[in-house]
Design goal:
Helix content: 10-25%
Structural class: alpha+beta
Distance between the termini: 78 Å
Number of helices: 15
Number of strands: 33
Shape: globular
Strand content: 25-35%
Length: about 625
Protein backbone atom coordinates (compact mmCIF):
# COMPACT_ATOMS: atom_id res chain seq x y z
CA UNK A 1 0.00 0.00 0.00
CA UNK A 2 1.51 3.29 -1.07
CA UNK A 3 0.55 6.68 0.36
CA UNK A 4 0.43 9.43 -2.25
CA UNK A 5 -1.02 12.00 0.18
CA UNK A 6 -0.87 12.72 3.89
CA UNK A 7 -4.67 12.80 4.03
CA UNK A 8 -7.62 11.90 1.83
CA UNK A 9 -10.93 13.62 2.61
CA UNK A 10 -14.08 11.93 1.31
CA UNK A 11 -16.95 14.41 0.92
CA UNK A 12 -20.49 12.98 0.72
CA UNK A 13 -22.52 15.17 -1.63
CA UNK A 14 -26.28 15.10 -2.14
CA UNK A 15 -28.31 18.25 -2.88
CA UNK A 16 -26.26 20.71 -0.83
CA UNK A 17 -25.77 23.49 -3.37
CA UNK A 18 -26.43 26.23 -0.80
CA UNK A 19 -23.68 25.01 1.52
CA UNK A 20 -21.17 23.28 -0.75
CA UNK A 21 -19.00 26.36 -1.36
CA UNK A 22 -18.47 26.80 2.38
CA UNK A 23 -17.50 23.16 2.74
CA UNK A 24 -15.08 23.07 -0.19
CA UNK A 25 -13.51 26.41 0.72
CA UNK A 26 -12.77 25.07 4.19
CA UNK A 27 -10.95 22.12 2.60
CA UNK A 28 -8.90 23.92 -0.04
CA UNK A 29 -7.76 26.42 2.61
CA UNK A 30 -6.50 23.79 5.05
CA UNK A 31 -3.09 24.58 6.55
CA UNK A 32 -2.04 20.94 6.08
CA UNK A 33 -0.49 20.47 2.66
CA UNK A 34 -0.68 17.33 0.55
CA UNK A 35 -4.45 16.68 0.89
CA UNK A 36 -6.58 14.70 -1.55
CA UNK A 37 -10.25 15.73 -1.75
CA UNK A 38 -12.63 13.07 -3.08
CA UNK A 39 -16.17 14.34 -3.68
CA UNK A 40 -18.80 11.63 -4.19
CA UNK A 41 -21.93 13.01 -5.83
CA UNK A 42 -24.87 10.67 -5.18
CA UNK A 43 -26.89 11.85 -8.21
CA UNK A 44 -27.80 15.26 -6.79
CA UNK A 45 -30.80 16.87 -8.46
CA UNK A 46 -29.70 20.43 -7.71
CA UNK A 47 -26.61 22.36 -8.84
CA UNK A 48 -24.15 20.46 -6.60
CA UNK A 49 -22.40 18.60 -9.43
CA UNK A 50 -21.75 21.80 -11.39
CA UNK A 51 -20.23 23.39 -8.29
CA UNK A 52 -17.95 20.37 -7.84
CA UNK A 53 -16.81 20.59 -11.46
CA UNK A 54 -15.99 24.29 -11.06
CA UNK A 55 -13.75 23.55 -8.09
CA UNK A 56 -12.16 20.51 -9.76
CA UNK A 57 -11.16 22.62 -12.77
CA UNK A 58 -9.41 25.04 -10.44
CA UNK A 59 -7.80 22.60 -7.96
CA UNK A 60 -6.04 19.48 -9.21
CA UNK A 61 -6.28 17.70 -5.83
CA UNK A 62 -10.10 17.54 -6.10
CA UNK A 63 -11.51 14.35 -7.62
CA UNK A 64 -15.18 13.69 -8.41
CA UNK A 65 -17.07 10.41 -8.35
CA UNK A 66 -20.45 10.94 -10.01
CA UNK A 67 -22.56 7.88 -9.22
CA UNK A 68 -26.16 6.80 -9.63
CA UNK A 69 -28.15 7.40 -6.46
CA UNK A 70 -27.27 4.58 -4.07
CA UNK A 71 -27.31 6.29 -0.67
CA UNK A 72 -24.70 7.81 1.59
CA UNK A 73 -23.21 4.50 2.76
CA UNK A 74 -22.22 3.30 -0.73
CA UNK A 75 -21.12 6.82 -1.65
CA UNK A 76 -18.81 6.90 1.36
CA UNK A 77 -17.39 3.46 0.62
CA UNK A 78 -16.72 4.33 -3.02
CA UNK A 79 -14.72 7.33 -1.90
CA UNK A 80 -12.80 5.40 0.76
CA UNK A 81 -11.81 2.67 -1.70
CA UNK A 82 -9.98 5.02 -4.06
CA UNK A 83 -8.31 7.09 -1.30
CA UNK A 84 -4.50 7.27 -1.48
CA UNK A 85 -3.79 9.15 1.74
CA UNK A 86 -1.89 7.84 4.74
CA UNK A 87 -4.94 8.92 6.76
CA UNK A 88 -8.52 9.43 5.63
CA UNK A 89 -11.49 11.51 6.77
CA UNK A 90 -15.18 11.41 5.86
CA UNK A 91 -17.33 14.54 6.02
CA UNK A 92 -20.76 15.80 4.98
CA UNK A 93 -20.93 18.44 2.28
CA UNK A 94 -23.08 20.89 4.22
CA UNK A 95 -20.56 21.06 7.08
CA UNK A 96 -17.33 23.03 7.53
CA UNK A 97 -13.86 21.95 8.67
CA UNK A 98 -11.83 24.41 10.74
CA UNK A 99 -8.94 25.58 8.58
CA UNK A 100 -6.10 24.21 10.74
CA UNK A 101 -8.03 21.12 11.88
CA UNK A 102 -6.35 18.53 9.68
CA UNK A 103 -2.89 19.89 10.42
CA UNK A 104 -3.51 19.47 14.15
CA UNK A 105 -5.10 16.03 13.79
CA UNK A 106 -2.36 14.77 11.45
CA UNK A 107 0.47 16.07 13.63
CA UNK A 108 -1.08 14.37 16.66
CA UNK A 109 -1.43 11.12 14.71
CA UNK A 110 2.21 11.16 13.65
CA UNK A 111 3.50 12.16 17.08
CA UNK A 112 1.58 9.40 18.89
CA UNK A 113 1.40 6.80 16.09
CA UNK A 114 -2.39 6.73 16.57
CA UNK A 115 -4.78 4.87 14.29
CA UNK A 116 -7.56 7.39 14.99
CA UNK A 117 -7.40 11.01 16.13
CA UNK A 118 -10.60 12.89 17.07
CA UNK A 119 -11.19 16.57 17.74
CA UNK A 120 -14.04 18.56 19.20
CA UNK A 121 -17.11 19.28 17.05
CA UNK A 122 -19.62 22.08 17.57
CA UNK A 123 -23.07 22.61 16.14
CA UNK A 124 -23.36 25.36 13.56
CA UNK A 125 -26.83 26.94 13.72
CA UNK A 126 -27.77 30.14 11.88
CA UNK A 127 -24.08 31.11 11.59
CA UNK A 128 -23.34 30.60 15.30
CA UNK A 129 -21.46 27.91 17.16
CA UNK A 130 -23.52 25.91 19.65
CA UNK A 131 -22.40 23.42 22.24
CA UNK A 132 -23.05 19.75 21.47
CA UNK A 133 -24.78 18.17 24.46
CA UNK A 134 -22.82 15.21 25.76
CA UNK A 135 -22.72 13.14 28.93
CA UNK A 136 -18.99 12.85 29.29
CA UNK A 137 -16.53 15.66 28.72
CA UNK A 138 -14.42 13.49 26.41
CA UNK A 139 -13.14 16.34 24.22
CA UNK A 140 -11.96 18.59 27.05
CA UNK A 141 -8.61 16.92 27.59
CA UNK A 142 -5.81 15.90 25.25
CA UNK A 143 -5.06 12.20 25.62
CA UNK A 144 -3.70 9.10 23.89
CA UNK A 145 -5.14 5.74 24.87
CA UNK A 146 -6.31 2.25 24.00
CA UNK A 147 -9.97 1.27 24.15
CA UNK A 148 -9.22 -0.63 27.38
CA UNK A 149 -7.90 2.57 28.97
CA UNK A 150 -10.71 4.90 27.88
CA UNK A 151 -13.90 3.16 26.85
CA UNK A 152 -15.72 6.51 27.19
CA UNK A 153 -14.58 7.18 23.62
CA UNK A 154 -17.73 5.31 22.55
CA UNK A 155 -19.74 8.38 23.56
CA UNK A 156 -18.31 10.05 20.44
CA UNK A 157 -20.40 8.45 17.68
CA UNK A 158 -19.55 10.97 14.94
CA UNK A 159 -17.51 9.93 11.90
CA UNK A 160 -16.65 13.40 10.60
CA UNK A 161 -14.55 14.90 13.44
CA UNK A 162 -11.75 12.35 13.01
CA UNK A 163 -8.99 11.06 10.82
CA UNK A 164 -8.40 7.31 10.44
CA UNK A 165 -5.27 5.49 9.36
CA UNK A 166 -6.05 4.07 5.91
CA UNK A 167 -4.24 0.83 6.74
CA UNK A 168 -6.66 0.31 9.67
CA UNK A 169 -9.67 0.86 7.39
CA UNK A 170 -8.48 -1.48 4.67
CA UNK A 171 -7.21 -4.31 6.90
CA UNK A 172 -10.37 -4.45 9.03
CA UNK A 173 -13.02 -3.54 6.44
CA UNK A 174 -14.07 -0.39 8.23
CA UNK A 175 -16.69 0.73 5.77
CA UNK A 176 -20.31 1.79 5.96
CA UNK A 177 -22.94 -0.93 5.69
CA UNK A 178 -24.24 -0.78 2.07
CA UNK A 179 -27.87 0.22 1.80
CA UNK A 180 -28.14 1.32 5.42
CA UNK A 181 -29.36 4.83 6.16
CA UNK A 182 -27.87 4.83 9.66
CA UNK A 183 -24.47 3.43 8.71
CA UNK A 184 -22.31 5.98 10.50
CA UNK A 185 -22.31 4.63 14.06
CA UNK A 186 -21.43 1.02 13.11
CA UNK A 187 -18.46 2.37 11.12
CA UNK A 188 -17.20 4.44 14.05
CA UNK A 189 -17.66 1.65 16.58
CA UNK A 190 -15.90 -0.84 14.32
CA UNK A 191 -12.98 1.55 13.90
CA UNK A 192 -12.66 2.02 17.68
CA UNK A 193 -12.83 -1.72 18.28
CA UNK A 194 -9.92 -2.54 15.95
CA UNK A 195 -7.68 0.49 16.63
CA UNK A 196 -4.48 -0.20 18.55
CA UNK A 197 -4.13 3.39 19.72
CA UNK A 198 -6.31 6.50 19.59
CA UNK A 199 -5.91 10.17 20.50
CA UNK A 200 -8.14 13.14 21.26
CA UNK A 201 -7.28 16.81 20.90
CA UNK A 202 -9.44 19.44 22.67
CA UNK A 203 -9.44 21.86 19.72
CA UNK A 204 -12.62 22.55 17.77
CA UNK A 205 -12.14 20.92 14.36
CA UNK A 206 -15.60 20.65 12.82
CA UNK A 207 -18.73 22.78 12.37
CA UNK A 208 -21.75 20.47 12.19
CA UNK A 209 -24.47 22.40 10.40
CA UNK A 210 -27.92 21.76 11.90
CA UNK A 211 -30.81 22.52 9.55
CA UNK A 212 -34.40 22.50 10.86
CA UNK A 213 -33.35 20.15 13.66
CA UNK A 214 -36.57 20.42 15.60
CA UNK A 215 -38.70 19.78 12.51
CA UNK A 216 -36.72 16.69 11.60
CA UNK A 217 -37.17 15.10 15.01
CA UNK A 218 -40.87 15.99 15.12
CA UNK A 219 -41.48 14.78 11.60
CA UNK A 220 -42.77 18.15 10.40
CA UNK A 221 -40.15 18.95 7.78
CA UNK A 222 -40.36 18.20 4.07
CA UNK A 223 -36.78 16.94 3.92
CA UNK A 224 -36.12 13.36 2.83
CA UNK A 225 -34.51 12.64 6.20
CA UNK A 226 -37.55 13.63 8.21
CA UNK A 227 -39.96 11.80 5.92
CA UNK A 228 -38.03 8.60 6.53
CA UNK A 229 -38.22 8.88 10.32
CA UNK A 230 -41.83 7.73 10.35
CA UNK A 231 -41.32 5.04 7.72
CA UNK A 232 -41.32 1.37 8.81
CA UNK A 233 -38.33 0.20 6.69
CA UNK A 234 -36.40 3.23 7.90
CA UNK A 235 -37.22 2.40 11.50
CA UNK A 236 -36.07 -1.20 11.05
CA UNK A 237 -32.89 0.12 9.44
CA UNK A 238 -32.22 2.29 12.47
CA UNK A 239 -32.81 -0.54 14.95
CA UNK A 240 -30.75 -3.05 12.96
CA UNK A 241 -27.60 -1.11 13.80
CA UNK A 242 -27.78 -2.81 17.20
CA UNK A 243 -27.09 -6.24 15.67
CA UNK A 244 -24.26 -5.00 13.45
CA UNK A 245 -22.56 -3.30 16.38
CA UNK A 246 -22.95 -6.42 18.52
CA UNK A 247 -21.31 -8.56 15.83
CA UNK A 248 -18.42 -6.09 15.52
CA UNK A 249 -17.67 -6.30 19.24
CA UNK A 250 -17.70 -10.09 19.12
CA UNK A 251 -15.39 -10.11 16.08
CA UNK A 252 -12.95 -7.75 17.83
CA UNK A 253 -13.01 -9.78 21.04
CA UNK A 254 -14.53 -6.91 23.00
CA UNK A 255 -17.77 -8.53 24.17
CA UNK A 256 -17.00 -7.31 27.69
CA UNK A 257 -17.58 -3.71 26.56
CA UNK A 258 -20.65 -4.24 24.43
CA UNK A 259 -23.14 -3.95 27.27
CA UNK A 260 -21.57 -0.68 28.42
CA UNK A 261 -21.50 0.78 24.93
CA UNK A 262 -25.00 -0.19 23.85
CA UNK A 263 -26.42 1.46 26.97
CA UNK A 264 -24.83 4.75 25.88
CA UNK A 265 -26.43 4.40 22.45
CA UNK A 266 -29.84 2.80 22.95
CA UNK A 267 -31.58 6.11 23.72
CA UNK A 268 -31.27 6.99 20.04
CA UNK A 269 -33.86 4.33 19.29
CA UNK A 270 -36.41 6.36 21.26
CA UNK A 271 -35.96 9.85 19.80
CA UNK A 272 -39.12 9.75 17.63
CA UNK A 273 -41.16 7.60 20.03
CA UNK A 274 -44.08 10.02 20.36
CA UNK A 275 -44.63 10.05 16.62
CA UNK A 276 -44.18 6.29 16.42
CA UNK A 277 -47.02 5.50 18.78
CA UNK A 278 -49.50 7.65 16.86
CA UNK A 279 -49.66 5.08 14.06
CA UNK A 280 -50.99 1.64 15.03
CA UNK A 281 -49.12 -0.27 12.31
CA UNK A 282 -45.88 1.50 13.02
CA UNK A 283 -46.37 1.07 16.77
CA UNK A 284 -46.84 -2.70 16.50
CA UNK A 285 -43.67 -3.22 14.46
CA UNK A 286 -41.60 -0.83 16.55
CA UNK A 287 -42.55 -2.29 19.93
CA UNK A 288 -41.87 -5.82 18.70
CA UNK A 289 -38.43 -4.91 17.33
CA UNK A 290 -37.34 -2.81 20.29
CA UNK A 291 -38.49 -5.44 22.80
CA UNK A 292 -36.22 -8.01 21.17
CA UNK A 293 -33.27 -5.65 21.52
CA UNK A 294 -33.97 -4.64 25.13
CA UNK A 295 -34.39 -8.26 26.21
CA UNK A 296 -30.80 -8.99 25.12
CA UNK A 297 -29.13 -6.25 27.20
CA UNK A 298 -27.74 -7.35 30.55
CA UNK A 299 -28.38 -5.15 33.62
CA UNK A 300 -30.45 -2.88 31.42
CA UNK A 301 -31.53 -0.53 34.21
CA UNK A 302 -27.97 0.09 35.41
CA UNK A 303 -27.23 2.92 33.01
CA UNK A 304 -26.45 6.62 32.81
CA UNK A 305 -29.64 7.53 30.94
CA UNK A 306 -32.44 9.80 32.09
CA UNK A 307 -35.10 8.10 34.21
CA UNK A 308 -37.69 8.26 31.44
CA UNK A 309 -35.75 5.64 29.51
CA UNK A 310 -35.93 3.13 32.35
CA UNK A 311 -39.68 3.49 32.30
CA UNK A 312 -39.75 3.11 28.52
CA UNK A 313 -37.75 -0.09 28.94
CA UNK A 314 -40.00 -1.47 31.67
CA UNK A 315 -43.27 -0.73 29.90
CA UNK A 316 -42.07 -2.26 26.63
CA UNK A 317 -40.56 -5.38 28.18
CA UNK A 318 -43.73 -5.99 30.17
CA UNK A 319 -46.15 -5.27 27.31
CA UNK A 320 -47.63 -2.29 29.14
CA UNK A 321 -48.51 -0.39 25.96
CA UNK A 322 -51.32 1.68 27.47
CA UNK A 323 -49.14 2.74 30.38
CA UNK A 324 -46.36 3.71 27.97
CA UNK A 325 -48.69 5.97 26.01
CA UNK A 326 -50.14 7.39 29.20
CA UNK A 327 -46.63 8.18 30.45
CA UNK A 328 -45.62 9.81 27.17
CA UNK A 329 -48.73 11.97 27.05
CA UNK A 330 -48.95 13.15 30.65
CA UNK A 331 -45.91 12.45 32.82
CA UNK A 332 -42.67 13.17 30.94
CA UNK A 333 -42.26 16.60 32.55
CA UNK A 334 -43.23 15.54 36.08
CA UNK A 335 -40.86 17.22 38.57
CA UNK A 336 -42.04 15.74 41.87
CA UNK A 337 -39.60 13.63 43.90
CA UNK A 338 -39.81 11.77 47.19
CA UNK A 339 -37.01 10.84 49.62
CA UNK A 340 -36.92 7.52 51.47
CA UNK A 341 -34.02 6.12 53.53
CA UNK A 342 -31.58 8.57 51.98
CA UNK A 343 -32.61 7.74 48.41
CA UNK A 344 -34.54 10.06 46.10
CA UNK A 345 -37.17 8.73 43.70
CA UNK A 346 -39.09 10.20 40.79
CA UNK A 347 -42.61 10.56 42.12
CA UNK A 348 -44.62 9.89 38.98
CA UNK A 349 -47.97 8.17 39.43
CA UNK A 350 -46.47 4.75 38.65
CA UNK A 351 -44.07 4.91 41.63
CA UNK A 352 -45.01 2.86 44.71
CA UNK A 353 -48.37 2.13 43.14
CA UNK A 354 -49.73 -1.42 43.67
CA UNK A 355 -51.78 -1.10 40.49
CA UNK A 356 -48.56 -1.26 38.46
CA UNK A 357 -46.15 -2.98 40.88
CA UNK A 358 -43.01 -1.53 39.27
CA UNK A 359 -39.76 -1.98 41.30
CA UNK A 360 -38.58 1.12 43.14
CA UNK A 361 -35.12 0.94 41.55
CA UNK A 362 -36.64 1.96 38.21
CA UNK A 363 -37.43 5.37 39.70
CA UNK A 364 -34.29 5.97 41.79
CA UNK A 365 -32.55 9.23 40.85
CA UNK A 366 -28.78 8.80 40.46
CA UNK A 367 -27.85 11.92 38.51
CA UNK A 368 -29.09 15.40 37.72
CA UNK A 369 -31.73 15.68 35.00
CA UNK A 370 -33.86 18.55 33.73
CA UNK A 371 -36.90 17.20 35.57
CA UNK A 372 -35.07 17.37 38.89
CA UNK A 373 -33.76 20.93 38.64
CA UNK A 374 -35.90 23.57 40.30
CA UNK A 375 -35.06 27.28 40.08
CA UNK A 376 -36.90 29.77 42.26
CA UNK A 377 -35.85 32.74 40.12
CA UNK A 378 -33.06 34.83 38.61
CA UNK A 379 -32.91 38.60 39.01
CA UNK A 380 -30.54 41.49 38.30
CA UNK A 381 -29.73 44.95 39.61
CA UNK A 382 -27.13 47.51 38.53
CA UNK A 383 -24.19 45.34 39.67
CA UNK A 384 -25.16 41.68 39.96
CA UNK A 385 -27.17 38.83 38.48
CA UNK A 386 -28.69 36.78 41.33
CA UNK A 387 -29.45 33.06 41.28
CA UNK A 388 -31.99 32.12 43.95
CA UNK A 389 -32.55 28.64 45.38
CA UNK A 390 -31.54 26.30 42.61
CA UNK A 391 -32.50 22.90 43.97
CA UNK A 392 -30.89 19.62 42.84
CA UNK A 393 -31.55 16.10 44.20
CA UNK A 394 -30.23 16.06 47.78
CA UNK A 395 -28.74 12.55 47.62
CA UNK A 396 -26.27 13.26 44.79
CA UNK A 397 -22.56 13.84 45.37
CA UNK A 398 -21.87 17.10 43.61
CA UNK A 399 -18.50 18.84 43.70
CA UNK A 400 -19.50 22.20 42.25
CA UNK A 401 -22.30 23.96 40.39
CA UNK A 402 -21.51 26.89 38.13
CA UNK A 403 -23.60 29.45 36.31
CA UNK A 404 -22.28 29.30 32.76
CA UNK A 405 -22.84 32.16 30.30
CA UNK A 406 -22.13 31.04 26.74
CA UNK A 407 -21.89 33.95 24.34
CA UNK A 408 -22.92 33.58 20.73
CA UNK A 409 -19.83 32.86 18.66
CA UNK A 410 -19.46 32.88 14.90
CA UNK A 411 -16.97 30.93 12.82
CA UNK A 412 -13.21 31.38 13.09
CA UNK A 413 -13.30 32.51 16.70
CA UNK A 414 -12.68 30.52 19.85
CA UNK A 415 -15.94 29.81 21.65
CA UNK A 416 -14.16 29.37 24.99
CA UNK A 417 -13.07 33.03 24.86
CA UNK A 418 -16.74 33.94 25.08
CA UNK A 419 -17.76 31.63 27.95
CA UNK A 420 -17.93 32.92 31.52
CA UNK A 421 -18.45 30.63 34.51
CA UNK A 422 -19.08 31.41 38.17
CA UNK A 423 -19.41 28.99 41.09
CA UNK A 424 -22.61 29.10 43.11
CA UNK A 425 -22.76 28.44 46.88
CA UNK A 426 -24.21 25.21 48.24
CA UNK A 427 -26.37 26.51 51.08
CA UNK A 428 -27.29 22.98 52.17
CA UNK A 429 -29.01 19.89 50.74
CA UNK A 430 -27.79 20.70 47.23
CA UNK A 431 -29.61 24.03 47.15
CA UNK A 432 -27.48 26.63 45.37
CA UNK A 433 -27.49 30.42 45.55
CA UNK A 434 -25.13 33.05 44.30
CA UNK A 435 -24.55 36.35 42.60
CA UNK A 436 -22.50 37.10 39.51
CA UNK A 437 -20.74 40.43 39.16
CA UNK A 438 -21.95 41.73 35.80
CA UNK A 439 -18.69 43.55 35.04
CA UNK A 440 -16.86 40.20 34.99
CA UNK A 441 -18.81 39.17 31.91
CA UNK A 442 -16.66 41.45 29.83
CA UNK A 443 -18.14 41.22 26.36
CA UNK A 444 -21.19 42.67 24.66
CA UNK A 445 -23.21 39.69 23.50
CA UNK A 446 -26.23 37.40 23.76
CA UNK A 447 -25.62 34.70 26.36
CA UNK A 448 -27.23 31.27 26.64
CA UNK A 449 -27.40 30.52 30.37
CA UNK A 450 -26.56 27.03 31.61
CA UNK A 451 -25.94 25.21 34.84
CA UNK A 452 -22.68 23.28 34.85
CA UNK A 453 -22.95 20.43 37.35
CA UNK A 454 -19.58 18.92 38.29
CA UNK A 455 -19.66 15.56 40.03
CA UNK A 456 -17.18 14.16 42.54
CA UNK A 457 -15.36 12.24 39.80
CA UNK A 458 -14.80 15.54 37.90
CA UNK A 459 -17.13 14.65 35.04
CA UNK A 460 -19.76 17.27 34.36
CA UNK A 461 -23.01 17.90 32.56
CA UNK A 462 -24.44 21.12 31.14
CA UNK A 463 -28.11 21.96 31.58
CA UNK A 464 -29.72 24.75 29.62
CA UNK A 465 -31.88 26.89 31.87
CA UNK A 466 -35.38 26.86 30.44
CA UNK A 467 -38.86 27.97 31.32
CA UNK A 468 -40.01 24.62 32.73
CA UNK A 469 -37.25 24.69 35.39
CA UNK A 470 -38.47 27.92 37.00
CA UNK A 471 -41.08 28.22 39.74
CA UNK A 472 -42.16 31.59 38.33
CA UNK A 473 -43.53 32.26 34.87
CA UNK A 474 -41.31 33.57 32.09
CA UNK A 475 -43.03 36.98 32.27
CA UNK A 476 -42.31 37.18 36.00
CA UNK A 477 -38.64 36.26 35.47
CA UNK A 478 -38.21 38.89 32.75
CA UNK A 479 -39.58 41.58 35.08
CA UNK A 480 -37.02 40.70 37.77
CA UNK A 481 -34.30 42.33 35.67
CA UNK A 482 -33.77 45.89 36.92
CA UNK A 483 -30.68 46.65 34.85
CA UNK A 484 -31.13 48.83 31.76
CA UNK A 485 -28.01 47.32 30.18
CA UNK A 486 -29.36 43.77 30.35
CA UNK A 487 -32.30 42.07 28.70
CA UNK A 488 -33.76 38.87 30.14
CA UNK A 489 -35.69 36.83 27.60
CA UNK A 490 -36.88 33.34 26.73
CA UNK A 491 -36.38 31.97 23.22
CA UNK A 492 -39.15 30.44 21.14
CA UNK A 493 -38.08 27.05 22.53
CA UNK A 494 -38.42 28.31 26.10
CA UNK A 495 -34.68 28.68 26.79
CA UNK A 496 -33.48 31.44 29.12
CA UNK A 497 -30.97 33.92 27.69
CA UNK A 498 -29.50 37.31 28.56
CA UNK A 499 -28.45 40.13 26.27
CA UNK A 500 -25.64 42.23 27.77
CA UNK A 501 -25.30 45.58 26.05
CA UNK A 502 -22.68 47.33 28.14
CA UNK A 503 -19.15 46.74 29.40
CA UNK A 504 -16.95 48.99 31.49
CA UNK A 505 -13.72 50.18 29.82
CA UNK A 506 -14.70 48.14 26.77
CA UNK A 507 -13.30 50.46 24.07
CA UNK A 508 -10.10 52.39 23.67
CA UNK A 509 -10.77 55.30 21.36
CA UNK A 510 -9.13 58.00 19.30
CA UNK A 511 -10.67 61.08 17.68
CA UNK A 512 -9.14 63.34 15.03
CA UNK A 513 -10.27 65.56 12.18
CA UNK A 514 -11.03 62.53 10.01
CA UNK A 515 -13.22 60.57 12.35
CA UNK A 516 -13.64 58.45 15.48
CA UNK A 517 -11.82 55.15 15.94
CA UNK A 518 -12.69 52.40 18.45
CA UNK A 519 -10.54 49.46 19.55
CA UNK A 520 -12.37 46.73 21.55
CA UNK A 521 -10.44 45.45 24.57
CA UNK A 522 -11.84 41.91 24.75
CA UNK A 523 -10.83 38.67 23.02
CA UNK A 524 -14.40 37.39 22.80
CA UNK A 525 -16.32 37.19 19.54
CA UNK A 526 -17.89 40.36 18.19
CA UNK A 527 -21.55 40.03 17.23
CA UNK A 528 -22.49 43.63 18.02
CA UNK A 529 -22.43 46.79 15.92
CA UNK A 530 -21.61 50.34 17.06
CA UNK A 531 -24.15 52.92 15.95
CA UNK A 532 -23.91 56.71 15.57
CA UNK A 533 -27.52 57.76 16.07
CA UNK A 534 -29.85 60.75 15.89
CA UNK A 535 -33.53 59.82 16.23
CA UNK A 536 -34.17 57.50 13.25
CA UNK A 537 -30.88 58.27 11.52
CA UNK A 538 -28.36 55.43 12.07
CA UNK A 539 -24.77 55.37 10.81
CA UNK A 540 -22.76 52.25 11.61
CA UNK A 541 -19.08 52.15 12.45
CA UNK A 542 -17.14 50.01 9.95
CA UNK A 543 -13.96 47.96 10.23
CA UNK A 544 -10.67 49.58 9.38
CA UNK A 545 -9.44 46.08 8.49
CA UNK A 546 -11.17 44.82 5.35
CA UNK A 547 -10.52 41.19 6.31
CA UNK A 548 -13.50 38.90 5.63
CA UNK A 549 -13.23 37.58 9.19
CA UNK A 550 -15.77 40.07 10.47
CA UNK A 551 -16.37 38.14 13.68
CA UNK A 552 -13.07 39.27 15.19
CA UNK A 553 -12.69 42.25 17.52
CA UNK A 554 -11.22 44.57 14.90
CA UNK A 555 -10.73 48.33 15.04
CA UNK A 556 -13.85 50.26 14.05
CA UNK A 557 -14.07 53.66 12.40
CA UNK A 558 -16.60 56.41 11.70
CA UNK A 559 -15.58 59.02 9.09
CA UNK A 560 -17.05 62.45 9.82
CA UNK A 561 -17.68 63.59 6.25
CA UNK A 562 -20.04 60.67 5.63
CA UNK A 563 -21.75 60.73 9.00
CA UNK A 564 -22.30 64.04 10.74
CA UNK A 565 -24.64 67.00 10.15
CA UNK A 566 -24.30 70.42 11.69
CA UNK A 567 -26.19 71.32 14.90
CA UNK A 568 -27.40 67.77 15.45
CA UNK A 569 -26.75 65.93 18.67
CA UNK A 570 -25.75 62.29 18.16
CA UNK A 571 -25.40 59.50 20.70
CA UNK A 572 -23.46 56.25 20.50
CA UNK A 573 -25.11 52.86 20.86
CA UNK A 574 -24.15 49.23 20.61
CA UNK A 575 -26.66 47.11 18.72
CA UNK A 576 -27.19 43.37 19.19
CA UNK A 577 -29.85 41.68 17.07
CA UNK A 578 -31.69 45.00 16.59
CA UNK A 579 -31.63 45.83 20.31
CA UNK A 580 -29.81 49.09 21.07
CA UNK A 581 -27.98 50.12 24.26
CA UNK A 582 -26.86 53.73 24.71
CA UNK A 583 -23.21 54.08 25.73
CA UNK A 584 -22.03 55.95 28.80
CA UNK A 585 -18.57 57.39 29.25
CA UNK A 586 -17.30 54.51 31.37
CA UNK A 587 -17.67 52.21 28.37
CA UNK A 588 -14.49 53.95 27.17
CA UNK A 589 -10.99 53.85 28.62
CA UNK A 590 -10.11 57.27 30.09
CA UNK A 591 -12.89 59.17 28.37
CA UNK A 592 -12.53 62.97 28.38
CA UNK A 593 -14.71 65.75 27.01
CA UNK A 594 -12.92 67.34 24.07
CA UNK A 595 -13.26 69.46 20.92
CA UNK A 596 -11.56 69.04 17.56
CA UNK A 597 -11.30 71.29 14.51
CA UNK A 598 -13.26 70.13 11.48
CA UNK A 599 -13.61 72.21 8.26
CA UNK A 600 -13.53 75.50 10.15
CA UNK A 601 -16.04 74.28 12.72
CA UNK A 602 -15.76 72.28 15.92
CA UNK A 603 -16.85 68.76 16.74
CA UNK A 604 -17.56 68.42 20.42
CA UNK A 605 -17.51 65.00 22.18
CA UNK A 606 -18.88 65.13 25.71
CA UNK A 607 -20.91 63.51 28.47
CA UNK A 608 -24.47 64.79 28.29
CA UNK A 609 -26.59 65.58 31.37
CA UNK A 610 -28.01 62.03 31.38
CA UNK A 611 -24.50 60.53 31.53
CA UNK A 612 -24.36 59.34 27.91
CA UNK A 613 -21.75 60.05 25.24
CA UNK A 614 -22.86 62.79 22.86
CA UNK A 615 -21.32 64.29 19.72
CA UNK A 616 -22.27 67.54 18.02
CA UNK A 617 -20.89 69.63 15.14
CA UNK A 618 -21.10 73.43 15.46
Amino acid sequence: MTNEYKLSVVVLVYNTEYYLDDCLDSLINQTLDDIEIICVNDESTDNSLNILKQYARKYDNIKIIDQKNQGGAIAGNNGLKIAKGEYIAIIDSDDIVVEDAYEKLYKKAKKTDSDIVAGKPVKYVNQYQRQIAFKNNIWDEERTFTVDEFKEIYYDVFYWNKIYRRKLVEEHDIYMIPGKIYADVPLVYRAYSFADKMSIIPDVVYYWRRRAQEDIIKGNSDTSVSKSLLDIPNMKDRLSTYYYVKDYFIEAGLEKYFNYVIKTYVERFFYPIKGILKDDNFKEVYLKEIKCILSEIDELYDNNLDKRYNLFFYFILNDMDDELEDFLNFDLDEKSTVTRDGKVYWNVKFFDNPEYNIPDEIFEIKKVEDNFINVEDISADSEYIYFHNISLPSNLKIKDVKASFMGLTKRDTVKENNVYEFSLDNTGNNIYNGKVEISKINNINNYDVHLKVIYDNDTYELFRLKEILFEKSSDEIVKLNKNDNLIFFFTSLGNFSITKGYCKNFFEYNIDSNGMFLIPKTNGAAIYKVVFNYKYDNVYFTQTDNSPKIRLQNELELIWKYSIDENTKYNLFVEIHKKKFKLKKNAFVDFKNQEIEYNGKKIRIFEDPEGYIAIILK
